[in-house]
Amino acid sequence: MQIKVGEGQVTVDMSYYLNKILREFKGLKPETLPGEKNLFLSNAESPLLSKLERHSFHTVVAKLMYLSRRARIDIITSVSILCTWVQALTNEVQTKLKCLLGYLCKTKNTILHTRERMPELAPRIFTEKVVTVVSLIETNCINSLHSS
């Protein structure tokens, strides 16, 4: 993660991290949205994933959760929905993950920019917020991974 603090602006760039994730997937179809229109729906008749596929799914979703909480807030809804299905992973849920990865493939150079109204306070305020948020997120992610 690259964090740059400038005059009244903070930039968070995690494109290197995202590219590492995307390298694991070949042939992704570029998508314009991070989720399909049926993102919130689940088909109970879809076949379950194998143990190896479930492990891969959990790993990728955990990485995307980390990414979404730091620099890619545009994918938070899709990642959160994918997290709700960790107990009953099906081919349909895998398709939803591939749609999200296709969106990330198309938007992989997107960078988070924030601006402060009082530029002289930006570095101090931003640093305090990042430390607090990162600590909370890491605690929640670790607890979620241990409970699944």
Description:
- It is built from 5 helices and 3 strands.
- Helix 2 (about 50-70) packs antiparallel against helix 3 and helix 2 runs antiparallel to helix 5 (about 120-145).
- A hairpin with a 2-residue loop joins strand 1 and strand 2.
- It has one domain.
- The longest helix has 26 residues, at about 120-145.
- The model is unreliable at about 120-148 (pLDDT under 50).
- The protein starts with a strand and ends with a helix.
- It is mainly α and about 150 residues long.
- It has a 3-stranded antiparallel β-sheet, covered by helices on one side.
Summarize it.
With 148 residues, this protein is mainly alpha-helical. It contains five helices and three strands, in the order ββααααβα.
- The overall pLDDT average reads 80
Rg calculated over all Cα atoms: 17 Å
Distance between the termini: 27 Å
Count of individual helical segments: 5
DSSP helix fraction: 40-55%
- What is the element string, with H for helices and E for strands? EEHHHHEH
Given the helix and strand composition, which structural class is it?
mainly alpha
Question: Shape, please?
Answer: elongated
Strand count: 3
> Strand order within the widest sheet?
1-2-3
The biggest beta sheet is recorded as:
3 strands, antiparallel
Uncertain runs with pLDDT below 50, 5 residues or more?
121-148
The total domain count is 1
In percent, how much strand structure appears in the residues? 5-15%
